[in-house]
Structures are given as structure tokens and as C-alpha cells.
Amino acid sequence: MKILSLTGFGRSAFQMNGLNVQVEMKSVNGKNFDLYLKSPQVYNELEMGIRSRLQELLIRGSVNVIISRMDSRVSQLQLNKPFLERILNELNEVAPQSSADKNYLLSALVRLPDAMQNNFATLADEERQGVLKAIDDAALQLNNFRLQEGESIKTDLLKSNKKILAQLEEVKKLAPIRNQKQKDDLLKKLDEIGINDQLDKNRLEQELLYYIEKLDVNEECVRLQNHCKYFQEILNSDDAAKGRKLGFVAQEMVREINTTGSKANDAAMQKMVIQMKEDAEKIKEQLLNVL
After folding, report:
1. pTM, entire model
2. Residue 163: count of CB within 10 angstroms of its CB
3. N or C of the chain: less Cβ packing under 10 Å?
């Protein structure tokens, strides 16, 4: 019976032996799952696993994740010999007879980003598990945030849906009154132009029935009532991701309301239709932020 918003925020952290890692995660509405991940280079190998895990936990939305890492451990820098040897060999292939000063060349090479490495350059299993757990914890917080906001959205959706049903009942009451009024107005106009007595009464009655049937809104009212009831059933279902399904039903609700409005031909009925359209548009707008 829960409903989740697409908007949320979560934060988590873990510490180990002078290492402090923080994860901040926020999401906004989006049609699909779209992840922007910013993390230290040492966590590059975890990116695919993080992406897969977050898609499983968060399902949909535009998600922004920032992982920050503060390492106060004393590292021991050392030359990245394989890297430097490869660069030197490639330079010798390009200019084998180069007379460049070797000391100057080595001084330039050690300034390259990958020329030095430290003893913490590889990701330890303990840190790997800590980062993944922090991701799970932040996602759990984000989903709790989504749930809290989703409850207020659900309350508003149920309220708008209930108002549409109430206004629909008024339309159903007004329809037969409108039909009789349309019939009386037509007969009055025929009397005014003085041809009422010259018409075949049976044929006139058939034409009146045909005209009124074209304005009949009973079928639209039945369909709209069914859509509203189905909308409420989906809201109260156990399915967490229900935003798209609710969106499809809301579109059908708007379609029936518009058709009813085009057939109203009556000020009182048109007023009810406008109110229903207003509540239906509120529903559509709110559903943009429902998972």
C-alpha cells in the first residue's frame, strides 16, 4: 500500500584505520534510471557493481552519487618502474639517437601523473566491502525519504480522485435534466417559427431522440467511474513502482472528462467538467514525481 516519490536524499559513511569515506546520494524525477557517479579513481573497478546495485534498489529516477575519500594513512611513494620503462622504450623507438640529457629526461618523466605509486594504490577487500555497504545504507536512507514524501503525495492523489468521483455523480444527476431542457428548447423554437404543427410527430420524436443520444454522456461516465476505481486500487496495491501505471490510467481519465465536456452543451454540466479537469491535471502533475 506504499507509494514512493522519485525525490530523495541519503548519506552514509564508514571509517577504517585512518580512512574516511562518505557517500551522498540524491534523486529527482526521471523516466528511466539515470546515474551520475563521481568517485575517486581507486573505486573505478566498483562502478559497474554500484550502478547495477543502485538500479536494483532505486528502480527509476535521475540519481546523483558523490563518494569522497579522505586517507590520513602514511603512504610510501615509489617509482612506477614498469610505466617508466615503457615510456623510455617508446621514446628510444621514436628518437634512438637522441642526445637529450638523460637526467633532464628522467626529471620530466617522474612528473607524469602515473610515474609514482603508493602502497595503498590497490583497493583492499575491507575497503571494498565498506564502500558497497555505505552505498546500500545511503540508498536505504534515500528510499525512506522517498516513502515519507510518497505518503503525502498519496493523500493528495486520493483526495483529487475522490473529488472527481463526487463531481461525476453531479454530472450524472444533471444529464437527464439537460436532456429534457434540450428537448423543450427545440420544441419551443419550432413553435416560434410556426412549423411545429406541420411536422410528423413520430418523425419529430425520432429526430429528438437521435439528437439527444448524440449528447448522451452515460458511456463516458461509466468508463470514468471505472478508471477512478482502478486508479484507487493501484494506489492501494503492494507494488512499489506504480507511477507509470497510474499515469496511463490518469490519461484515460482525462480523455473521458474531455469527451464529456464536448457533449455537455449545458452550463451546469460544463462547470462540473471544468472542476474534474482541474483535479485530473493535479493528478497528472503529481504523478511526474511518483516512482
Report:
1. 0.73
2. 16
3. N
